[in-house]
């Protein structure tokens, strides 16, 4: 990182880039996945950056009303440009991403359309998807209620079949049954996929999806029996306040029977509940897809924050002046590097594990279609665990990047306060992170309990089958260079993970009840901030080397 005085007085960023010891273009390709992806991303980024309609420099200063109007304007303009330029689906998706302003279109494309694709019959898809693709209807995803979020089975909205009219009656029986939080619901959406308890012939068949029209296509007014609106401002300036998260209540609203999403099950004209031949486990494919997208978004948000902090650290100079010379770049201080560089590495790690989850989605979908459910447990554990870990780590990292930029990071113009405010909801939506981690812990505990029976773990938990070796092994690292060998690093993490799982299982076995066991898991989760001494803490194993790179560094 050392630079001579001449370079220090010039363009620091240019000098740092010139000093890179890797091929920058090759790294771009590695990040994007292909040269084609790099080129498309570059074209779409330039298209957005050069269009004054998509400006964002004044966003944090707008009132909520003006911010929402700005969001509508950008969404309409983006759709106009997509049509005019005849952009491909890949190009259109990137253009919407670079517009970088949460809005109703996110839920329309990200939840409403996939729900119809995944849960609708072929006939239903032919009817509804063309309308959605042409924006003749605008959809949202109405699942979460005021009284229930993570506990989907506790939802209270009802959909009761009426054989006299061959339709369902959608109703909100309690205040807590009000749909609460759906993005796009507050102002924009004309339709919703509503999740409700299906009741027919006096029996409750659990939660099912229904396509329900909410507003008139003539004047956008709420339909009879539908009460809805915006739930108000959210955390931060700009940020998620551009999204019209809404509240929705139904007063005996009637819909035709064929607006129940019927790919997995249906109700006949006579009111009989019938399962289809399509396995319900296919819904897991949609879950994997959504969580894969969240992990990919984590890498994007983290990379933005790190980019800001790295560039600031290269430009900012503090202390170190000798004989009237220039001060030292903040980036050259080891304390700054030790806080910043692990976040940079994490951005790449999250990017590549997102690719792996994309492969897992394809693999799981293919196996489900072949009625092979062998990987469902692992798919759930991986997606739940990675969603929780990457979103929590990213939220914390954005805040750390703000601190790394000193007082300037607190300014809205740094981009970091708004980035933090717009990102932190990811720790809650699509599964509260603590709840998800407890689900992963239960799967790990189940796997540990099966080790004594001789049942061999598979997939990403296959390493637990080496229990005898890993419980006794010691770190084989002899020199600092040994840490460049991935095999050493992998075994260290395998040994640490297995020993923590076994220890956790032993302690939970002594708990009086499940609640006490859950509390133990939460209280004994070792946070990253505690990984600051030797290999015995970092990896849960005993290092045999006096020249251990992590121990020397920490």
TrEMBL record:
Record keyword Nucleotide-binding present: no
GO MF annotation list: acyl-CoA oxidase activity; FAD binding; fatty acid binding
Span of domain Acyl-coenzyme A oxidase N-terminal: 23-138
Top-level taxon of the source organism: Eukaryota
Active site: 430
The protein, known as: Acyl-coenzyme A oxidase
Record has Oxidoreductase as a keyword: yes
Acyl-CoA oxidase/dehydrogenase middle domain residues: 140-241
Family per similarity comment: Belongs to the acyl-CoA oxidase family.
GO biological process: fatty acid beta-oxidation using acyl-CoA oxidase; lipid homeostasis; long-chain fatty acid metabolic process
Residues where FAD binds: 144, 183
Compartment annotation: Peroxisome
Known cofactor(s): FAD
Entries under Pfam families matching the protein: ACOX_C_alpha1, Acyl-CoA_dh_M, Acyl-CoA_ox_N
Keywords: FAD, Fatty acid metabolism, Flavoprotein, Lipid metabolism, Oxidoreductase, Peroxisome
Gene Ontology CC entries for this record: peroxisome
Primary localization: other
Residue ranges annotated for the Acyl-CoA oxidase C-alpha1 domain, each copy included: 284-445
């Amino acid at each position: 990182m050392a630079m001579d005085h001449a370079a220090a007085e010039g363009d620091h960023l240019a000098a740092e880039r010139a000093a890179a010891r890797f091929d920058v273009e090759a790294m771009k390709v590695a990040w994007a996945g292909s040269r084609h992806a790099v080129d498309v991303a570059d074209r779409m980024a330039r298209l957005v950056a050069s269009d004054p309609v998509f400006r964002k420099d004044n966003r944090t200063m707008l009132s909520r009303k003006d911010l929402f109007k700005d969001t509508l304007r950008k969404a309409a303009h983006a759709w106009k440009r997509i049509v005019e330029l005849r952009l491909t689906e890949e190009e259109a998706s990137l253009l919407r991403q670079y517009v970088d302003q949460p809005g109703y279109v996110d839920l329309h494309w990200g939840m409403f359309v996939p729900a119809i694709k995944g849960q609708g019959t072929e006939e239903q898809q032919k009817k509804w998807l063309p309308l959605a693709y042409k924006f003749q209807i605008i959809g949202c995803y109405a699942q979460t209620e005021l009284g229930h979020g993570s506990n989907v089975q506790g939802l209270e909205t009802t959909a009761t079949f009426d054989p006299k009219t061959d339709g369902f009656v959608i109703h909100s029986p309690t205040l807590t049954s009000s749909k609460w939080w759906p993005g796009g619901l507050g102002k924009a959406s004309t339709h919703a996929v509503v999740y409700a308890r299906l009741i027919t012939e006096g029996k409750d068949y659990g939660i099912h999806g229904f396509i329900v029209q909410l507003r008139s296509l003539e004047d956008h007014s709420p339909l009879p029996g539908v009460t809805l609106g915006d739930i108000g401002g959210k955390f931060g300036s700009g940020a998620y306040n551009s999204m019209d998260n809404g509240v929705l209540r139904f007063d005996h609203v009637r819909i035709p029977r064929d607006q129940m999403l019927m790919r997995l099950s249906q109700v006949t004209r006579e009111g009989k509940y019938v399962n289809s031949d399509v396995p319900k486990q296919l819904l897991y494919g949609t879950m994997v897809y959504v969580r894969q997208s969240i992990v990919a978004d984590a890498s994007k948000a983290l990379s933005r924050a790190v980019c800001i902090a790295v560039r600031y650290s290269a430009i900012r100079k503090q202390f170190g002046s000798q004989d009237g010379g220039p001060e030292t770049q903040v980036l050259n201080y080891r304390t700054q590097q030790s806080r910043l560089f692990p976040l940079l590495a994490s951005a790449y790690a999250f990017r590549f594990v997102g690719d792996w989850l994309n492969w897992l989605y394809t693999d799981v979908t293919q196996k489900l279609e072949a009625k092979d459910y062998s990987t469902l447990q692992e798919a759930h554990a991986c997606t739940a665990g990675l969603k929780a870990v990457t979103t929590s780590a990213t939220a914390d990292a954005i805040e750390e990047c703000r601190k790394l930029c000193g007082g300037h990071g607190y300014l809205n113009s740094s981009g970091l306060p708004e980035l933090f405010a717009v990102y932190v909801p990811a720790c809650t939506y699509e599964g509260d992170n603590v709840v998800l981690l407890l689900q992963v812990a239960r799967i790990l505990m189940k796997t540990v309990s099966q080790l004594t029976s001789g049942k061999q773990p598979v997939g990403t938990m296959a390493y637990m089958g080496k229990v005898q070796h890993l419980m006794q092994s010691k770190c084989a690292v002899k020199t600092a260079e040994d840490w460049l060998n991935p095999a050493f690093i992998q075994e260290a993490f395998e040994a640490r993970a297995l020993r923590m799982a076994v220890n956790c299982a032993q302690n939970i076995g002594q708990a009086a009840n499940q609640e006490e066991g859950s509390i133990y898991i939460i209280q004994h989760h070792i946070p990253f901030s505690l990984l600051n001494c030797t290999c015995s803490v970092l990896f849960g194993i005993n290092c045999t080397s006096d020249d251990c790179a992590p121990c020397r560094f920490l």
